[in-house]
# Entry
Amino acid sequence: MTNVSSRAQRCFAALSLFAAASAFAQPALNVSDRVMLRQVLQAMPKGGDLHNHLSGSVYAEYYLKYAADDGMCLDSVKLAITQCPPPQPAAATLPTTSPIVPAATVFQPYSSLYGEMLDALSMRQFRAGAESGHDHFFNTFGKFSAVSKTHVPEMLTQDVWRLATENVDYLETIFAPDFGSARDLLKVVKPGQSFSEMRTAMMQSGLVPPIITSSRAVIDRAEAYMRDNLHCGTANAQPGCDSTVRYIYELHRGVPLQQLFAEMVVGYELASADPRVAGLNPVMPEDSYISMHDFDDQMAMFAFFHKLYPKIHLSTHAGELVPGLVEPEGLRDHIRDSVMIAHAERIGHGVDLTYEDDAAGLLKTMASRGVAVEVCLTSNDVILGVSGKAHPLRYYLAAGVPVTLATDDPGVSRDDMTNQYMRAVQEQGLDYATLKRLARNSLEYSFAEGESLWSNHDYSKMATACVDTASSTCKTFVAANTKARIELRLEQRLRDFEAAWK
# Structure
């Protein structure tokens, strides 16, 4: 990096000056120059994004384009992408007006529908009123699902490219490449069967292997499309070609238990068969009736599968709740049970921490076990209304719980990873040393395969093989361990970044 402006140098000097400051004191950084702070944090290598929903990462503008390219329609009343009605016979009497219009309509001059659709498919210009931020956020997914299911290659390309432009080189994105085929396994389930009996029936049905094969093919096609469209391996290679991508199989906690069980069978088998599928994660609103009512049974199912697949990773949305959204007792154990019963290695959100029974003991357990928290500051603000001092981030940090910053659904939130770092500085008072630790955490606590570059999570002590990172021993070690490889790359990028701003 050359020709750095003096203002940028001063901004980074401020970051460096307070690198050793406590993350829990009053904000030490001069954040009045938001523009330069943004420039510094965008340039900062940030490791990985561990909590990223693929469909929620795409900006609404692209969904409208996909719909128009596919000849789909829009419901101009419900403000949703939909299939077009079948052609009507010429003699049929048609209504003079219809709410269903071609998706291409939004690209015509003076179309007000374009802006209305962007607002409906995201949090763009949202103002709470009759509809809460929580409801508007989750309602967006149903409005673009008709097209998101058919454009996984394009969506993955957008997600990886956009993160790479922000210097995020590792991604674990959440989606279900079987597109709901796991439901086919329900046909072999009989009433009253135990977990073991249900799984045996599903595994012996012959239906699981084809689902695994087709799911892997979906990932193959998406990655091939991404490499081609980012011009990887050519002189015109785009950001993202050097990124490492892993997939988290998406479970649906808001469906009936047997269906969720079927998804678990597919998810655990897929993760066992393909190292690119790094783990599983249950999605859908945590406060929905089924999510709350069946929570204990869901935890028991995770415990059952953990015994069968102890090496398969699990991260769970847990504690994405606030008082009033559910009854008080619903806030007491979702994080704890996800850790203690389901054996989750990471927790997504964890916002209701202070309402958990024995929160201090829970923090101690998470710190000792190295259970990381995927903190999504923007998402927690727009969905739950939790930000600033109301956010429990500082409690996790003070207790020594590993923390990472994540985007969640940047397309829906109209946000990006850099802004998570901006919020961490401006709203949470974090200094550069803490941001750097969080960036390292995003790789150290990732589900990337292989051994770590670091000894016992200590960022001052590299693994024995890499005491000398230029040695042939280290090169061999890094080549054999994806986690060590991406961590070493981050260290090299951080050194370059810091040297450029001195």
About this structure: Residues 1-22+427-502 form one domain. The chain is about 45% helix and 10% strand. The CA atoms of residues 378 and 420 lie 7 Å apart.
